[in-house]
Every structure is written in C-alpha cells, then in structure tokens.
Design a protein that fits this description.
2 domains; 333 residues; four-stranded parallel beta sheet; Rossmann fold; globular; alpha/beta
Length: 333
C-alpha cells in the first residue's frame, strides 16, 4: 500500500511533526509512505517538496488580504483564521497518482484550497483527514473557545473585527465546506477525544465518519536518560526541582502560560519554602519574555527547537511537565 501524507510544512509546528512521525511509523511497518509539503526543512528522501517559487508567497499574502478586507482593514486576528481560497492542484503529481490512500493533515496558509481538496475527493482515491485543530469542523477558526455557532452554522464570528455579521466571512466559508463535505467520502481523524467530540457536534460533520487516534511517538527515542548530564548540557541547576512549560510560541495566550504563573503564585503563597527548591524552565520562541512575567520562582528560558534529540534531553532534565492550554488537540510534547 502507498500512502501520501499532505502537510503545509515538514517540521514547523506540532501538526507537521505529528505527520512526519506518522510517515516514519508507516514506513517502519511495511507501508510505503511519502509526505508532500510546501516547506521542506530536512533532506529526508521520503518528503517531497512542491516546486519552489514566489507564487507560494503570493497565495499566502492573497489569503491574508481577503481576511484583512473582511476585517474592515484591521489586523485583528489576521493570522488566527484561514479560508483556504488559494492553494496548489496536486492531483497531477506522480506522488499523488501512484498513491493508494491520500492522508490530509494541516494544509492551510496556501497549501491547498477548498477547490483543490474538492479535486482530490473527485479523484476517487480513499481520503483520510487528520484534524490537528478545529479548522476542519468550523468556518474559519482553528479554535472556537467559547463560541459554539459551528454546531449549527457559523456567523457573527468573534474572530472578525466588530463581531462579523449574519453572512460574514465565517458564514461563507462554512457554506463552502458544507457543500464540499456533503458528497465527500472522507474518514476524519481527531488526535484527542475532545476534538472528536467537538467535530461530531459540528453541523458540517453530520453523517460523517469521525474517529479518535492519538499521535504516534518514537518510544525508542523518547525514553529516560541521565538527568545530571541533561542538566549540564542546558546549564540547569543540579539540585532544584524543575518544572517545564513548552510551546512553539510562549506568548500564545491559548497555551496558558498566564495560568501557570497564577498556579505558581498560589503554590508559593501556600508553601513559601518551595521558593528555594522549585525553578521553571520555559521552552519555545520568545521564551526570554517569560523572565518578565511575575513567576515567584526563578525562570530558565530555552530557545525553540524542532530537533527531537534536543527535546529528549530537555525532557530528561526536568522533573515535571505542565500543559496549561486553554484549548488544544494533542500536543506532541
């Protein structure tokens, strides 16, 4: 069996990492898997990059322009939503033609448009679509937070400046997705029970097949190692209890670092003696900004890395990992 996994990126972001790990797991278990991406970051021969060109950048910019216009020319949530109005037709590529199964992953920001996806579905090949956030089952957002309109019909979108309207951008994209899915034969996969439940509640998924399958992990790589050596590698104190918080972008409010700060404040108030024993490790882009937050414990910022052997070392250096996310699918960390 030949499986083609499709993702915007090979290694940037949790969805890309999960897709890449799945490809490796399939190849290690007798399935011939390849990954088609717009942005390739390694020399992995199983990963195929779309033909490079300035057109990819223009597609991304054009999508932002349409969103910007819908936002009354405000930057409000400009990069928090996607509408899939631009993309690349991949159905004529040899990798697509030879595949027995097409496996979609995170395909936003100009990788595939809704029209491109429609053409993939029309090819007659079996399609699996792994959802790495809520975008597949909402109008335009990746995380709906308190909004539940996607359960019936998206409109008056809180992501649009001024609260949108009855037939705003979210409504129009919702209708396009509804039309797309109506005749589609797709198996949708959520990486968590929470996302499975959310997807099944969406009006877009009425009558659709939705399953929950956790992301794979390389258990021969992610395993215990020498903690002392790991702490020396990252210049972390040998005798402290270390708590790790990690995120692609530390300042992303959805990842909940403010709640971690508050939890630590409460802990320090109730047990002031812990100020001498507990310290915080923050991993990710803009981690240095965490030193300005009101943590009651000393903070050790570490830069973002997408190298798995480095992540293994960081995990082995700490005593506890905390995920205070407000909404999340199944973070690879």
């Amino acid at each position: 069996m030949r499986v083609l996994l499709i993702s915007t990126s090979e290694r940037t972001g949790g969805a890309a990492v999960a897709a890449c790990r799945l490809m490796e797991a399939l190849n290690n278990n007798g399935v011939k898997a390849k990954m088609l991406v717009r942005d390739k970051q390694t020399d992995n021969i199983s990963v195929v990059e779309l033909e490079a060109g300035k057109l990819h950048l223009w597609k991304f910019i054009w999508e932002r322009i349409v969103i910007w216009k819908a936002n009354r020319f405000k930057k409000h949530n400009l990069f928090a939503v996607d509408i899939a109005n631009t993309g690349t037709d991949i159905t004529s590529l040899p990798e697509f033609q030879e595949a027995d199964v097409i496996h979609l992953h995170w395909i936003n920001q100009g990788m595939l448009s809704l029209k491109n996806i429609q053409k993939i579905l029309a090819s007659g090949k079996p399609v699996v679509w792994t959802m790495h956030d809520m975008w597949t089952c909402t109008g335009i957002c990746h995380y709906a937070y308190e909004c539940t309109r996607y359960r019936e019909e998206c409109h008056n979108c809180p992501y649009i400046y001024g609260g949108g309207g009855k037939k705003d951008l979210s409504y129009r994209i919702f209708q396009k997705k509804k039309k797309l899915y109506r005749k589609a034969s797709v198996t949708f996969v959520a990486c968590s029970r929470w996302l499975e439940k959310s997807a099944k509640e969406s009006a877009l998924f009425s009558g659709q097949t939705v399953a929950s399958i956790p992301n794979p992990i390389h258990i021969n790589l992610f395993k215990p190692h020498n903690k002392k050596e790991a702490r020396i590698k990252y210049n972390l104190p040998a005798a402290k209890q270390l708590i790790l918080f990690g995120s692609l972008k530390v300042t992303d409010k959805r990842k909940g670092i403010d709640y971690l700060v508050e939890a630590c404040r409460i802990l320090a108030e109730k047990h002031p003696e812990l100020k001498d024993t507990i310290e915080i490790v923050v991993l990710g882009h803009k981690s240095e900004q965490s030193e300005q937050l009101s943590f009651p414990f000393k903070v050790h910022p570490l830069p973002f890395t997408n190298k798995e052997h480095e992540l293994v070392s960081v995990y082995n250096a700490v005593d506890l990992y905390v995920t205070p996310s407000l909404q999340d699918n199944l973070p690879n960390t």
